[in-house]
Write a structure and sequence with these properties.
With about 280 residues, this protein is α+β, with helices and mostly antiparallel strands. The chain has two domains: about 120 residues, 2-Layer Sandwich (D-amino Acid Aminotransferase, Chain A, domain 1), CATH 3.30.470; about 150 residues, Alpha-Beta Barrel (D-amino Acid Aminotransferase, Chain A, domain 2). The protein has seven helices and 16 strands. The two termini are about 30 Å apart.
Length: about 280
């Protein structure tokens, strides 16, 4: 399997990450995860602009070559080199500030790695399997702009994932310092109650998710659901009719149980079809 390192195609088995890498030493890095179907990048424009804005927020120097056309070309070249041009593929772009300095970097230039993984299905599929989630309260995500980007500082997510595994849950809800529910370990949450559908605002510290953005655009045109970007209290979870989370790889994942409450999947089922239609339009 090949990967791209700083624009050069290399065998993944023969490459090594330096022990001085700032992403490894300080978490001074970020990433972007993409879904590619038959060599078409889903929602590429949204991913690209999120990546650029995240690099600016981290005061990283954006290379002159980092145009959307250049990065798209590298992604598709890598997919082809791995024989996956006619397959559904998960692509991960890692950006790290270059080696030099300690907490204070010597400069803000960057290196990058692009890697691929084969996916099972070409489109988003809503699983019918039971999916139970618990509230993670040991640590919280700090509200603010840094929490909205896909940085490599994901210890709360990792610890929540370990908590879920050790206690027989499929996932966990994460909260911020104000005890508002933000997201799951790997996606943005949506809560349905009657004809209202809520998702936390970015100011609470939730990830600025790509599928979140697509669903907001879909829901704004829906005459049957009233969209609200508002903080969600843990007490609201058990009063909801439906809960689900979203991310770029799974699309939509229904949550069927939280504590003693079970949930329907009606709205999620209707939205996954609309999301797939939006993804297909994005290919054109």
């Amino acid at each position: 399997m090949n990967i791209f390192i700083d624009g050069k195609l290399q065998d993944a088995q023969s490459t090594h990450l330096s022990i001085t890498n700032r992403g490894y030493n300080y978490g001074d890095s970020l990433f972007e995860t993409l879904r590619v179907i038959n060599s078409k990048i889903m929602f590429w424009e949204s991913h690209y602009f999120r990546l650029m804005s995240s690099m600016r927020l981290l005061r990283m120097e954006i290379p002159m070559t980092f145009s959307p056309e250049y990065l798209e070309e590298k992604i598709l070249e890598l997919i082809k080199s791995n024989g996956l041009e006619n397959s559904p593929v998960r692509v991960k772009i890692n950006i790290h500030r270059n080696t030099g300095g300690y907490y204070i970097p010597e400069d803000n230039t960057v290196g990058y790695i692009i890697s691929t993984t084969l996916l099972d299905t070409p489109f988003f599929i809503l699983t019918e399997k039971p999916y139970e989630v618990e509230l993670y309260k040991d640590h919280f995500v700090q509200s603010g702009m840094l929490s909205t980007i896909k940085s490599n500082n994901k210890l709360v997510n990792v610890l929540a994932g370990i908590f879920a595994t050790e206690n027989g849950f499929d996932n966990c809800f994460l909260i911020n310092e104000k005890k508002s529910v933000l997201e799951t370990t790997n996606g943005n949450i949506f809560l349905v109650k009657g004809n209202e559908i809520k998702t936390p605002p970015l100011s609470d510290g939730c990830l600025n998710g790509i599928i979140r953005k697509q669903l907001l655009e879909i829901l704004e045109k829906d005459e049957h659901l009233e969209l609200k970007e508002e903080s969600i209290s843990p007490f609201e979870l058990q009063k909801a009719d439906e809960l689900f989370y979203t991310n770029a790889i799974q699309g939509i994942q229904s949550i069927t149980k939280y504590r003693k409450k079970t949930y329907t999947t009606k709205v999620a089922k209707s939205l996954v079809g609309k999301l797939n239609a939006k993804a297909r339009l994005a290919e054109v």
